[in-house]
Amino acid sequence: MSLSRSPSPVPGGGWASPGLTNNLSPSGRSSPTKAYAGSNGTPVMWERQKNMGGAAYQSFSTQNQGFFSRHMRRISSSLPRFKADNTHGAEREKIGQGRWNMPRLGRIRGITGRMSRRTKMLLAFGLLFLLAYIIFYSTPLVYYYRRTSWLGGGQKFVIILAANVGGGVMEWKGAREWAIERDSIRNKKKYVAKWGYDLEIVDMSTKKRYAHEWRESWEKVDFIRSTLRKYPKAEWVWWLDLNTFIMEPSKSLQDHIFDHIEDVTYRDINEYNPLNISHPPADPYLDELSKSPIGDGNPNSIHLMLSQDCSGFNLGSFFMRRSTWTDHLLDVWWDPVAYEQKHMEWEHKEQDALEQLYTAQPWIRKSTAFLPQRMINSFPTGACSEKGNDPRIHYDQKDRDFLVNMAGCEWGRDCWGEMYNFRELSYHLNRSLWERFKEDLLCWIWFKLTGKKVKF
Amino acid sequence: MHFAYPPRKSSNPPPFRPRTSALPTIRGKRLKTIVLTGLAFLTLLWLFQRSGRSRHAPPAYHKPSGNPPVVIVTVFNEGKYGKGYLDMVKENRLKYAEKHAYLPSSPPDAGYGTFFVKSSDYDLHGAPVSWATLPAVRHAMTKFPDASYIWYLDQNAFIMNPLLKIEEHVMKPSRLEELMIKDHPVVPPDSIIKTFSHLKGHDVDFVLTQDKDGLSSSSFVVKNGEWAKFFLETWFDPIYRTYNFQKAEQHALEHIVQWHPTILAKLALVPQRILNSYSKEKGGQEYKEGDLAVRLYACGEAGEDTCETESQRFAQWKAAFQDS
Q: Is residue B136 a part of any domain in this protein?
């Protein structure tokens, strides 16, 4: 039966397809009934089939009947289908959204059905590439496989963060101290999550165990030992004081230092010798290796890497490798005879003890290497600034130094202010492309247009 | 839209177009395979380039080859003793070393080494002369990098039994395991630090004895290696000298052995008469016939005979070394 004109959009107004009519009646019928019959009063095809149980044919012919007749099936299959249950109000809204589920799949199926094989392959490949990029570079999953030894080796590195310095025992730990600790810890946690290292946060509160005459301030040694025991796969341990901030978290330790140790370290302290230690040791009874200024020159024999600041060794940020040499050093680092004689002189405790050991015992020099200070231990302009800004020591934004150690900020400077500023600077320097686009282009345009500074 | 349908195809199919190039072209499916394989290979390369970067070759410290097997070190205090006496002591060492020079199946040079120094050779920065032991042994390790063991013997001591070989009589791992005094206070009588009970013979790098008062540093053996260098340099730290221990390096040794477990872990105590018999009962175990060496305990001190006199009592070493 042909339609002489396109039927008006009246409920039940002539379309043979049931999905096109609205069921606003509250009578709650959930199954299509004869109410959906077309204007001719005949039920739809499948209804008729159900009723008559026999082969039924379409009631209208589709040949040469006009655009809608010929393409009706395709159009009608992609139009929204109506779900035939009775709901009110908010549920209807939800259903309204839900209405699009099935047809979307159908639309996608329709689109892909019309694509050629080649297009499908390209699309699949592109999606796979995007998925790989997301998995390998941006999700939290990067933590797990950057740890494995064949994809980065992150589990070889453990960062020890000395937190809770003092623990509020001798001095009040107020909001600023808590904020500094929070920022420092958060920064290290993010870094570790990004590169697959381990983080060990140790409690440096004032303990009786480390009081006067009982290894006072020698906690570092004990914590390094216990960390090496706790992380059996760790090869390198990185000690960080609390007042440090990793400014460039996009640099991994492997890229920054460990893939090319021999290029970045120097063993001959004469390159930079603030303590004026005479090197190499000149005792006549020493063997060639001990007398050599660079040890054996083999990067694999370096077991301690540290930096020097303007007044000597700085143990705010240093690396130690798991080895017998390290065991020996951690063992002899503290000695009661040494402590008794020197603790009045040794302001920096274990740091000064290490300087004494380095000076007196040649076996220590064999496995110690130094890093340029700005590589792992840049100072802010307040520290070590008797002679003004020293390009060897002080943080330089242009060079994008890796880590800032706000050493000595408790003595006369503002720890929280420095931490906050370096944190904001780090965020600013490491903005993503989108943020850069917003801030450098859009905000700038807006400023030029309206003279007002905004932040998107 | 002038025509409803595209023009009708002709019944004659178009002729086959000739090749544009002489070389065979890679057709669709093969090209795809090649490109995919290439990409997979590059991915694998990228994945594994990280592991290729780590170099894990541990540094090869020079392992002593055992030539000579033992070096005997003695420090001579020329200021205090006569030349004749010191020459006799030197001869004793040399004869002993010679005795082990020509063994049936060893090469001609496989004798023991000897290393003699004067205590004035080293700058002790004002510390007592007995501290010169340490740089002397360290020096011997430099001079004989291939020696297996260094045996330090005090100047006032004589080697009595030429037949005993250090590497078998003392340092052989199985022998050490039977000789080791286990779970014994390192400083008698009542130090709470005791020697290890489960040390393996090959893990021992330092063998010494105790006398009645404490550890005796007049006769000890160290195994040449990195641990020995660490140990000697630690013991020789100027901080121990400035502390002015009552018995100089002996007390310093007792101190470091009790306070530093990495040193205690390589230490073995053996019965005194194995290495270090005393000439008098009152100091420690007394010398008996067949012992390796005797030390003239407290000779030259107030109320005792001089060392020269004391050494006459043990002059039988000359005869012992005379026979084969």
A: yes
